[in-house]
């Protein structure tokens, strides 16, 4: 199941990233190397083994429903490249 | 050819928790923009989400009330997509392991009671709110991270009416158990519909179209009705139905294509390692089960069996939690259930409908309605007068005794007193009496 340059293009598009031809070639190579290495895992017989989400069998780290202070609005908006009327401003998007 | 519609609904409901799903910001509605935000719900790097226990409780409650199986071990998943209403660029939701599965709601279908299956209920978070202006899009993230459950029905509905009934029942149940206020106008209940058609008798499903942007139950009904007609017309003209998302346009009363699935989203779901898996044991489920109040169906049965109401009355009165509460308060005040029901189903519901109001807007108290009925039963006022008194009660919230007294509406049933009044009137109008005796019936107008 080798990675092709098409796969790299697709993943790059999903991540909204742009690369030149040379970079694409390199990523294709690198990803194939990484996946080839991980492929070794498929040698293990996992018949009847549940998928594991976390390294430890831990459950229910839950929080009580108690309100705590939020950030000050100025602070919340501090990292926004653009803001107006106490709103985050982004390039126009309509799907 | 006769066609049959296949309808499935996806309903998002905001849970009535005090805080968001993965952080301790308040879920309060309204107020200033971006003042209920923190590093977690803004998706700032390094912040860690922690699941709200009460939200899980509410979701289990909803699941039990909707006859679902509660799944013992579930985990949260990331749904990846880029859209500015989602600050993390992924939504934390559930994918392969929804908390609740395989439930149902019973609706009064055309050929008697019908079970609409619920495929799954999972927990997730709401997004921020966008405002689109000419020069850009603007976002308020107060709503981002507010706990939601998504309730996905099986494609079991066949008519727009059934879909509306399913929604009404769903809303009533969720309000009863108190997991959400289900206010469509505030966005705490939202509904998308999947609609396809097939020739009657066929087993295969047609291509389904998703409809969004319906802002009331009535709109859902109308949008589905329109969509079915549109699809039938297209098929009869030999056109193919395209799998797409369409938006309901309330002003044009039609569905409009939004986007086709050619650039379908690839959400790349995977388990969210930031959140420890959820394990719900029998003890937890039983604890929630014990906290469930009487559900509409149970109430209905009780009204019929214990209070002697007709099936229809019981069904109407249990349609909303507030309506049932008002009825029960009247009965607790000593009102006769059938008499109270008659007044509620008659004057009260009619007036509320006319004025587009809800039972919560009623100004008078349940005790006042009981008092009004008592005044009729004692003969103090007639049924006709009572309707006038009711109108006054509805408008002012005053108690009926006060209204009757102030307006002098007391019905006189003492015969002697009535004859005395008649004699007085006749004495004061001798000419009319003569006219009448001479055959001029006009005097009767007196």
Automatic annotation (TrEMBL), chain A:
Main EC class of this protein?
ligase
MF annotations from Gene Ontology: asparaginyl-tRNA synthase (glutamine-hydrolyzing) activity; ATP binding; glutaminyl-tRNA synthase (glutamine-hydrolyzing) activity; transferase activity
One GO biological process term is: glutaminyl-tRNAGln biosynthesis via transamidation
Q: Carries keyword Protein biosynthesis?
A: yes
Cite the entry's keywords alphabetically. Answer: ATP-binding, Ligase, Nucleotide-binding, Protein biosynthesis, Transferase
Write out the catalysed reaction. L-glutamyl-tRNA(Gln) + L-glutamine + ATP + H2O = L-glutaminyl-tRNA(Gln) + L-glutamate + ADP + phosphate + H(+); L-aspartyl-tRNA(Asn) + L-glutamine + ATP + H2O = L-asparaginyl-tRNA(Asn) + L-glutamate + ADP + phosphate + 2 H(+)
Known EC number(s)? 6.3.5.-
**Pfam families found in the cross-reference section:** GatC (PF02686)
Name the domain of life this protein comes from: Bacteria
Described purpose of this protein according to its UniProt entry: Allows the formation of correctly charged Asn-tRNA(Asn) or Gln-tRNA(Gln) through the transamidation of misacylated Asp-tRNA(Asn) or Glu-tRNA(Gln) in organisms which lack either or both of asparaginyl-tRNA or glutaminyl-tRNA synthetases. The reaction takes place in the presence of glutamine and ATP through an activated phospho-Asp-tRNA(Asn) or phospho-Glu-tRNA(Gln).
Return the PANTHER family for the record: GLUTAMYL-TRNA(GLN) AMIDOTRANSFERASE SUBUNIT C, MITOCHONDRIAL (PTHR15004)
Q: How does it assemble?
A: Heterotrimer of A, B and C subunits.
Family, similarity comment? Belongs to the GatC family.
This chain's protein is named Aspartyl/glutamyl-tRNA(Asn/Gln) amidotransferase subunit C
* Species, as recorded: Fervidicella metallireducens AeB
Its taxonomic placement starts with: Bacteria, Bacillati, Bacillota, Clostridia, Eubacteriales
Q: Which gene encodes it?
A: gatC
């Amino acid at each position: 199941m080798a990675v092709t340059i098409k796969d790299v293009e697709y993943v790059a598009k999903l991540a909204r990233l742009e690369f030149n031809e040379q970079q694409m070639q390199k990523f294709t190579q690198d990803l194939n190397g990484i996946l080839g290495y991980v492929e070794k895992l498929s040698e293990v017989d996992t018949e009847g083994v549940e998928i594991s989400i976390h390294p430890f069998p831990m459950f229910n780290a839950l929080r009580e429903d108690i309100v705590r202070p939020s950030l000050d609005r100025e602070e919340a908006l501090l990292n926004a490249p653009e803001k107006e009327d106490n709103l985050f401003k982004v390039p126009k998007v309509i799907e | 050819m006769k066609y049959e519609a296949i309808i499935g609904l996806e309903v998002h409901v905001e849970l009535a928790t005090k805080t968001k799903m993965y952080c301790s910001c308040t879920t309060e509605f309204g107020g200033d923009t971006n003042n209920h935000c923190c590093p977690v719900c803004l998706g700032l790097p390094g912040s860690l989400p922690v699941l709200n226990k009460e939200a899980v409780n509410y979701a289990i409650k909803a699941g039990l009330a909707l006859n679902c199986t509660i799944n013992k071990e579930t985990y949260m998943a990331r749904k990846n997509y880029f859209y500015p209403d989602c600050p993390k660029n992924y939504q934390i939701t559930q994918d392969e392991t929804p908390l609740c599965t395989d439930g149902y709601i019973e609706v009064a279908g055309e050929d008697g009671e019908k079970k609409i299956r619920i495929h799954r209920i999972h927990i997730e978070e709401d997004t921020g709110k966008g405002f689109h202006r000419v020069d850009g899009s603007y976002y308020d993230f107060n709503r981002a991270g507010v706990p939601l459950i998504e309730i996905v029905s099986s494609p079991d509905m066949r008519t727009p009416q059934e879909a509306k009934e399913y929604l009404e029942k769903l809303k009533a149940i969720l309000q009863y158990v108190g997991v959400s206020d289900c206010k469509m106008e505030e966005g705490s209940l939202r509904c998308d519909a999947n609609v396809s058609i097939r020739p009657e008798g066929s087993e295969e499903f047609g291509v389904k179209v998703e409809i969004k942007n319906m802002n009331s139950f009535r709109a859902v009904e109308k949008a589905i009705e329109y969509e079915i007609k549109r699809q039938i017309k297209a098929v009869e003209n030999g056109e193919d139905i395209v799998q797409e998302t369409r938006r309901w346009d309330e002003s044009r009363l039609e569905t409009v294509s939004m986007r086709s699935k050619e650039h379908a989203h690839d959400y790349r779901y995977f388990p969210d390692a930031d959140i420890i898996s959820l394990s719900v044991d029998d003890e937890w489920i039983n604890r929630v089960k014990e906290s469930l109040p009487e559900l509409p169906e149970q109430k209905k049965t009780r009204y019929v069996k214990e209070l002697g109401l007709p099936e229809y009355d019981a069904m109407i009165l249990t349609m909303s939690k507030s309506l049932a509460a008002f009825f029960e308060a009247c009965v607790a005040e000593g009102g006769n259930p059938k008499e109270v029901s008659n007044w509620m189903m008659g004057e009260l519901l009619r007036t509320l409908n006319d004025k587009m109001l809800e039972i919560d807007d009623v100004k008078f108290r349940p005790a006042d309605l009981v008092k009004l009925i008592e005044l009729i039963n004692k003969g103090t006022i007639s049924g006709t007068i009572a309707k006038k008194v009711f109108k006054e009660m509805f408008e002012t919230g005053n108690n009926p005794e006060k209204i009757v007294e102030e307006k002098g509406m007391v019905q006189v049933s003492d015969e002697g007193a009535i004859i005395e009044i008649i004699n007085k009137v006749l004495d004061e109008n001798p000419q009319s009496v003569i006219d009448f005796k001479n055959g001029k019936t006009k005097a009767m107008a007196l």
